[in-house]
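Researcher: Going back to the complex we discussed earlier. I've cleaned up the inputs and rechecked each line, so this should be the final set. Can you rerun the prediction on the complete assembly and write out the structure?
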Amino acid sequence: MPIAESEIKWIEEPRLGLWEQLYVPALIDGLKTTVGHLFSRKVTEQYPEEEPKLPPNYRGVHRLNRDEKGRVKCVACYMCATACPAHCIDIVAAPAPADWQRDGREKYPETFVIDELRCIYCGMCEEACPVDAIELTTLYDLTGLSREEMVFDKEKLLSVFDQTTAAGTDPIRTRSGRLGPASEPPPE
Amino acid sequence: MPLFDPINTAIVIVALMAGVLGLCGYLTLSERKISAWMQDRLGPNRVGPKGLFQPLADGGKFFLKEEVVPSHVDRIFYLLAPAVAVGTALLALAIVPFGATTPAPDPIPARLTAEGISPLTQFEQQHQAYQQQFNFVLNPGLDIGVLYLFALGSLAVYGVILAGWSANNKYSLLGSLRASAQIVSYEIPLGLSVLGVFLLVGSLNPEKIIAWQTSHGTWLLLLQPLALLLFMTSLYAEDNRLPFDLPEAEQELVGGYHTEYSSLKLGLLLLSEYVHLVTSSFMIAVLFLGGWSLFGLESLIENPTVAAVVKLLVLCGKMVALCVFAQLVRWTIPRFRFDQLMNLAWKVMIPLGLLNLLSVMVVKQLGASLVLLPLFSGLLFIGVGVLSARWQGSVTNPKRKVAKLPPGLPPGVTYAS
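Model: Rerun complete. Updated structure for the full complex:
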């Protein structure tokens, strides 16, 4: 679609007066700005010494939440593994132990493995989870010496939960295992 | 100190070179720090306290980097270019005063007798007094002085041209072509602007120029402000410093003339630019800011050793301040376009320099008061501003005509519906 002539606005650049044509005043004006910034507060964060304060909805390393009794909250429904675009979640489900069954838990994950190198940290597993069991935390400094080390199993993911809960850096969805304001209310 | 003493000279050479090269290292640090501070960052601060050993790390890195000589270069000139660049830059330091100086006594006409002393004995007394003085110059009493500096400044472009041409690379060649055009153009206002100073002082010798300023109790900055502006601008252009760093404009030319260089050869090319900056800052301080004088305060000190140290510090302090100013300007003004660069030199600075020279000539010829000189400078400056505001930059920045197309589609053009 060509642009109609009536919609074209012809603009002329502003005409410079004597003050601007002298050039030196403009230069001094620029120097005032830059020299002012010389002494202003710096925004640099000294990373290894100063940790950045990340927003609680940051998408870092995953964690598996525990319920009130310290059991893994996951019900092994495979929703996260289905939603995952990178296919990095591997779950093996098993019937839940008898005392868990009394609380209405039928299944639980026997193994729950996330390949942190394959993950793209999109947060879709978190969105898919019906029981708010998997979450992304604000941990970002994830390193390892081998590929095997970066494949996180259930214990490792639960320990991330313990670690972040102890540090008080819970994600926005849940606070210390309880449902946060952002999560949906449980069905009546 | 007119007698040549090899040991003394060697000591001065070593001290001067060490000082200037060390300063150049720290100028790279200050450049990075200033740019960081201006952008609200902290700058390099990991090597040593507050990053003070950063230049050592940088220098060490230049030594340890792999030295690549591409197969397509003209080997001889490629290897020669950094040496030429650094050599000419360092040679220019030979006449630069860096502390207290005493000019050689003027010759005395034989017929004049002052208080019964014969001219010959008077002359010999003056010379004996002169030989007692220590001059903080590598080559004191050189009467061509500043001319030598300009000659070496023109030679310095050889380093850039050789580097760009021998690298056999389009970006390098473009960079060196720009450098040659730029330096040829800016040599003229550079020389023209200080001709007025030479006319006023009557000498090209930097020691005499300082002595003239101290004896007249004024800095040439106050008498020739316009000349200082032109001189400083052309010096930045000669040193390839921003806003005139087109020879190495990295956004356009990768690295400009040093694209193909690596390791210490690149380090030498970069070093030569900082040596140029130091030399030109010294020259601005000597020619316009009264050299080692500081409003007559330095003459209050009785002890000659302390006085010499103070004068050294004053002149070097002025030089460092000018270097820092150049860096402030670098991170403030964006780069000129090439046609703007050429227009500025040929259509603004050369006419201004000529008119400024004319005003000095008129004042000297009519024997008028020197107070008129800054007035003339101001008049010229404002006058040029008025003219360019009147002409709307049509002289310095001619516009091409914009052809407005008639409304509707041009013939033969159809749009997919």
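Model: Worth noting: Chain B has a mean pLDDT of 83.
Researcher: Good, that matches what I expected from the previous run.
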